Amino acid sequence: MKEFEKANVLTKKFTQVTLSFHLDEFYSGNVNDMSVNTPPKNLFSLLEKSDRVLVTAHIRADGDAIASVCFFSTLLIRMGKSVQAVLHDSNPDNRYSFLHGFDMICAPHSCSSFNPDMVVILDTPTLKRLGDVQYLIRAGMQSINIDHHESNEMFGTVNWVAAASSTCEMLYEIAEIYSEYFDTALAEILYTGICFDTGRFRFSNTSERTFRIAAQLVSKGCDVESITENVFYKWSPVKARMMGEILSGMKLIKNGSVAILKLDHTFFISHPDGWQELEGVSDLGISIDGVDLSIFFKELEPGTWKLSLRSKGRYNVNEIAERFGGGGHAQASGCEIKGDFNAIVDQILQNITSN
Ligand code: 5GP
Ligand code: MN
What we know:
Elements: H1 3-20, H2 31-34, H3 41-49, E1 52-57, H4 63-78, E2 82-86, E3 118-122, E4 142-147, E5 158-161, H5 167-177, H6 184-197, H7 208-219, H8 224-232, H9 237-248, E6 251-253, E7 258-263, H10 265-270, H11 281-286, E8 293-301, E9 304-311, H12 317-323, E10 327-328, E11 332-338, H13 341-351
Parallel strand pairs: 1-2, 1-3, 3-4, 4-5, 7-8
Antiparallel strand pairs: 6-7, 8-9, 9-11, 10-11
Helix pairs in contact: 4-5, 4-6, 5-6, 6-7, 6-8
């Protein structure tokens, strides 16, 4: 698909979502002033009529995904619903254990007795990205899909996919509507997801609206310092050493404009939950002056490489990842490729074109 055609499709999709639902009556205060994307009305009707709700997000859940799940589970419990929070990962990233609702999150095998009448799928562009959670979703089950990934496949009964920094930024709109339940705990959850997905408010997805919402969350009592410390400044010694080794082995190619970082499977043998330690590694490559594209290769299984791609803008890494079956955003994306490391690097380099 040509670039402009793709842009049109996306604009159409977002416009459709934005224009179809103007819920002025649902809003209190000044939210409408800064709102470009509002939740569809049928999202609330489905939510209200559901009693037993499964709440989930993507595999190897990151800060936005975990926070989204904590937010929705906590909110629905406060609304009197029966709720099961579930993620594919048997040990979700413990850095987020300070979030209200984190302790409720179960692995798919331990919640198969829960009989949901609806599922809320957060921050997840495709059902495949749910990992084993997809097997808990019965055919025909009603679902709400809330996400900010351009590549979202609109698989829900109700889909709310919008251009926002994070799913948590979108969820602020829902928190405002259920204002009687919107306390500091929920505000801290949303701030955490937004802070994470914007890389501490520094990626290009950080908009005026993001800052306005963050300001509202701070006014609700968020402890900004402790959240930032919990999410970004609690490296384990293992992580610090691993970062050093990865940087020592980094390759700079294409006149120093592309950084290649690599972590072999041996690391994951000695650290089975080691994928949780990798947050921020991809940013190391892109932090270097002159680097426009950074690719971090993680050998999760022997011969299976999970790639994290980051761009400063010259490359659309969502398009690159999509070519290899993955996706994400223009400046941060991922995909999984099987094969020989050097062969994959060559294959990717042949497939990249800068803007
Ligand atoms: P990360 O590199 O931090 O794992 O992911 C960066 C972004 O790309 C996130 O928004 C993440 O959801 C998305 N992403 C990572 N891997 C995949 C993948 O295999 N498929 C898709 N569709 N998105 C991915
Ligand atoms: Mn996200």
